[in-house]
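Readers outside the structure-tokenisation community will struggle with the description of the input data as it stands. I therefore recommend that a typical entry be quoted early in the introduction. An entry of this sort, consisting of the sequence and the corresponding backbone structure tokens, reads as follows:
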Amino acid sequence: MQARSSDLAHSDAVPAPVPFADAFRFWVKLGFISFGGPAGQIAIMHRELVDRRRWISEERFLHALNYCMLLPGPEAQQLAIYIGWLMHRTLGGIVAGAFFVIPSVFILLALSYTYAAYGEVAAVAGVLAGFKPVVVAIVVEAVLKIGSRALKRQVYYAIAAAAFLAIYALHVPFPLIVLSAALIGLIGGQLLPGLFGAAAATAKTDDGRARRASVIDDHAPPPAHTLPSAARFARTLAVGVVLWLVPYLLLLAWRGSASLHAQEYRFFTVAAFVTFGGAYSVLAYVTQVATTTLGWLTHTQAVDGLALAETTPGPLIMVLQFVGFIAGWNHPEGMTPLASAVVGALVTTYATFLPSFMFILLGGPYVEVIRGSAFLTSALAGVTAAVVGVILNLALVFGGAVIWPHGISGGADWAALVMSVGAFALLYRYKVDVLWVVLGGGAVGLVGRLLFGR
């Protein structure tokens, strides 16, 4: 009996901190498997960090996600920065956010050059086609898992359903949905606490077993390095300003203030601060300006860029790198088209993602301090419920595009449907590592293209 009690006590003990080397390897791996846009990427991080590795608890994960959802820019990358920073200070956040993007930078550079020089990307079409059904399965799994743990009261089911209908049927802007859900939760939590009171996160895994303790658990106090101070805020802000200003001054000295690349630096910096609603909303804004006012590329090229970004790992907002690349290719201004395009792509990527690091490193300490505030608990619970509805919308939209690529009247792609169901079973029922499922999907797609030309 004593041995049994000892085992139970040991199983409930807080795990040791995650070694930086282990976290580094995970963030590198994540950069190569983060397919599926924000919903798929959030699903992968939830599966790997909350369910499998237990590096962060459900409540802490959702709290960080709620904050990132309120920010402009790529919320999935910002979530990675937040968790990396939470575990290993500023260096951890930089590594997590950088490697979330670095693989896609080089992959999209190669695809952009192939597109610009040869007009097609058939060499990788088979592999990319195999990835898509797996992403559908990942997103569906996220809806089930996050929904089962976040929707603990009927009112939150109603908020999730309303958010789904608003974005799917009424095309309400995503920021308005999140803000409305936060206000409903905030007001409802004050006026009707019995109805809106946030329920505790489940202590069970999907198969009913007790959850192992997390390294960063629900009730653990904020790490010492997350405590805010005016000096820290000023120091971090100053570093961010320098990191933006120095490359810009070098670019001005090299190319001039009226050059395409200087214009890209300024334009995409502004875009990074107004991209509420994700990649689709920013693409609409960028396409409007870049294709008409600036004349950098055509509307067709912008849409082709979104297709390429959809099929590469990393944030979907990487489509802006494609825009910067094609703009440089079309307007070399004394450089070779390839050199101008590469500079344009790198300038665009740097200006797009630098603000994400600043949003987290500046705001994260304050978000950690208010984590236990009862005043905000129901507001963030409302946001979480709305996020479930938004992810469900993305699952249906992306699933429809993969399984019915030519619309309902065009018939289903039965091979894609079978692959999605199989991938879902491997992930949800058999708990297979998502990396192997993604790689397996790519291999099946490649074989299908080689044998059947599809």
In short: Residues 141 and 428 are 7 Å apart (CA to CA). DSSP finds 18 helices and no strands in the chain.
